[in-house]
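Two proteins, back to back. First:
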Amino acid sequence: MAAPNPWIILPFVLLLGAMALAPLAAPHWWLRHYAKVAFGLGAVTLVYYLVVLRDLSHVWHTVHDYLSFIALIGSLFVVAGGIHIRVPGGATPLANAIFLLLGAIVANVLGTTGAAMLLIRPWIQMNQPRVTAYHVAFFIFLVANVGGCLTPIGDPPLFLGYLQGVPFWWVAKNCWPMWACGVGLLLAMFYVIDLRNFSRATRTARETQTLHESWRCDGLVNLLFLAVILGAVFVRQPPFLREALMLAAALGSWFATPRSVHAANDFNFHPVQEVAILFAGIFATMMPALEWLHLNARTLLGDEAVPGMFYWGTGLLSAALDNAPTYLGFLHALFGVTGAKDVHLVLAQFPAEMVAISVGAVFFGAATYIGNGPNFMVKAIAEQRKVRVSTFLGFIFKFSLPLLLPVLLVVWLLFFRH
């Protein structure tokens, strides 16, 4: 089969550039036309593969991976939207730190998308009336990204790795020290910052409690549907049975959840619809980019695989683009550098490099709003709840560079420098 022309990578570059810049330069235009952009650019690549290369098998494999990816993300989104947690306001810094730690753990079960959608509303509520932009930023750091580093369910790039053949428990076994370090450092930073904010707040703000509210969880029937989704992850044969089970669980959740719960969560399908459309374009357009990385990895990265190089390379591109396709790109690059033919050989001979790619993709996904799918969803919900969140560049300069970057440096020094 002929290699794709490098110029066909251009639709991938244009789509990622549009995702990064269009919401800032022309937000209303992007909201109306992002589907046309994603589908149009994706169609260019698909036509090239089907008509010029006649590579039907590659297209079919990509379609299967996309459907598996969206089935997991979408089903977790629906099930999480059927659970509503009501909390009192006026949380203390210690209560907040415990909540974020629990959210980081839950992210490995519900996925960062499911955990973020489930917990962002109670997180905002429990910090009324002193909730600020840094509350949203640390929620994105811990719940929507770093926390989900222990299972393939946790974060989209790790699930793509699972689809490529990475064993389910390999991630937890090999990435837990980095997870503990990253989560611990971020929680310590948050506690210090929140303690200062709490002490500066007025006495009324510190003592505020929503008297008619108490800790309560509605929609617990969805735990049953969550169990179905988690069980389906382990189903590999026959084809599409896993995705069918996830879809069935999502439909069951939708019809079994009282409308009052969905109303309390302001639940709608727009966030997951946007993710599904954009990732359809990403999965289609990234096919030639992945092939090019595989063929040219040895030239770009040299003959020797170095964990630190894969950590920073995967991480920086995950922050600038999106961590799911970046993970796949550097996985293919590792194949090219090592000459390995499958994931199992890479895991046996180059485990440190695989850990570096996994941690880099998950941790650096927190650095920008476009680094991981849930980030934009969290921002949108916070704005809907009248929280003053940072702009795209403000998030980077106020939070990612001064707070997240030192943690990323420590993780590199402790685990990937040598």
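And the second protein:
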Amino acid sequence: MIAIKPDGSLESGDITAQTVCTLDNLCQVVAAAGGTMADVNQVLIYLTDAGDAAAMNAVYRSYFDQPFPNRATVVNSVLLAPGAIIEIVAYAHIGQSGA
């Protein structure tokens, strides 16, 4: 998941703006599947700059409640989408267990 705005363009702002857009997109996808962010159990975050971690974490904490999902953060100088400075992969379990 990357910071794609509703018009299909990439959010070109700083790490805070791109994180908000990316997590808003994640919320929409999880809701469309019938879940909530509480159903997310693992998150992989890719940043292009380790210096963005603190600002990303500040936004991230506003989307999840404790206990936070299992998470890994990886820094890579280039992401696939030109201009993206954050990419998120999330796994969620939505639905009743044992059904």
